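Lab notes, practical 5.
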Amino acid sequence: MALPAAGPGANFRLSDGLAVAGVYNTSGGNDAIVSLDGRWVFYRQDVDGIDAVELWRVATVGGTPERVSGILPAGSNVFGIELVPDGSRIVFYSPQDDADLAELYSHPVGAPAGSYVKVNSPLAPGSHLLTSGAFSPDSARTLYYSGPDTLGTDTAKLWVAELDGSSQTPIVTLPLGRDFSRLTAPPDFAHALYVADAAVASRYELWSVPMAGGTPVKLNGALATGGDVSEIAASPAGGVAIYLADQQVDGRRELYVVPVAGGAATKLNATLAAGREISAAVFTPSGGRILYVESEIGTGTIREIWSVAPDGSGRVALLPAMTTGGALAWIGLDDDYLLYVADQLVDERYELFSVPLAGGAAVKLNPTLVTDGDVVFDQNAAPRVTPDGTRVVYAADQSANGLENLYSVPIGGGTATPVGTAAVFGLTDIRGIAIASDSDRVAMVRWLNPLLPGATPSVHLWLASLQGGGWTRIDSCGELCEVWPYWTFSPADPGQLFYLADQEVDGRFDLFHGDACLLCSDGLTEHVAES
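Output from the prediction step:
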């Protein structure tokens, strides 16, 4: 059933007039989380004013907010909030049963408030718990570990748990005094992958164990004296995992791939120059290739980015030579392209480039910039790829120094076109960018610099279409109002978005519903007037 629209330009408060703390979720954002069916928005709030930040929800069409978590003691916080893949439950950490222990809970998204269950088994005093962020394909189970207690009387264990709280099964128990450092699982949830000093104290190695239980298998090869496995990732396509380890030379990390069920590990990187290591590695979203970073040991300075197939074939270096003093400022990943911002051509002039992951020439995506102009690479306003993977939206003071605007360009190169109309804003900074699931609606938070003559420190939320038209302001803030640079579109209806702002009371950030109906569900394109 479609959700009712608020009407063009309409917005209304969803929270109950108390300062909202925001939601700290696993993706690193600080925003509202909207259920996949678009009916609920979850957020954190200290309703009692005692610094007890609890999890709340409210219907996206408005209504009375409801506490989802338990009542917390002063100084406590709910954190680690995320939806399971099928959207049926929201999971979160909370110290609601023991002020000294943050435990894992789940709550059915649409069930009556307070229907949460504890997912983990009872923890020993002084122990800790960490989830893998991995869920079974049916979103019914998860993987977590309980760490050893501070008294040294309890062992670290790896568990498979039902998210409805009905059972917890230990599948690995480490020797007393040992611990886990990394934990993940492939998409089929058939095996658990973990890093632990299971065989030798303080020597951390990569292990695999069936979710149904069995004998763990060590996946890494023999480590150099002092060597450890430091990072792991399972392929989104299944079958293999990658890991970083100083396996051959202590202090020099390299990249390896290995079957998740056990088998020979293969080194993926080429021979490294002295003083270099592999500092990071990721799979592309489809798992078809692996991207890895070659850096200087000690400084972390990136010297090259490589792409390789999981079987070790097709290894290519992606970065062209840079001008003297040039360096990477930001990198992003699509399934087919590496995106990066760098002063590659002129020192201190930051521009946006893309290069095919399978190999090829890097292409500059922005046109010639005005003197002292740059592409923005701050975390919240860094370039974004549209969900359909066809275009990149980026911020830059491209046509006038100090006047940042959004631009859209084909991901493989082509003509960059302005999003909306830059002239309506003047000298302002863009503080955040988001693109709706329809790959058309683009929202940004824009800050008017209070140091400019006659300016006030206002921060507003604006919306435009990649198909053309002007900008529409979503919030109803006054001059001194501030919209947080974190917001979210509804996954069920890209015509609705949700944001935090001190729109009604200065300094009190409430949760608001905003109407993003530029291209409505009836297929009619509305005229959007410039504000």
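Observations recorded by the TA: Confidence is low (pLDDT under 50) at residues 1-8, 519-531. Residues 495 and 528 are 14 Å apart (CA to CA).
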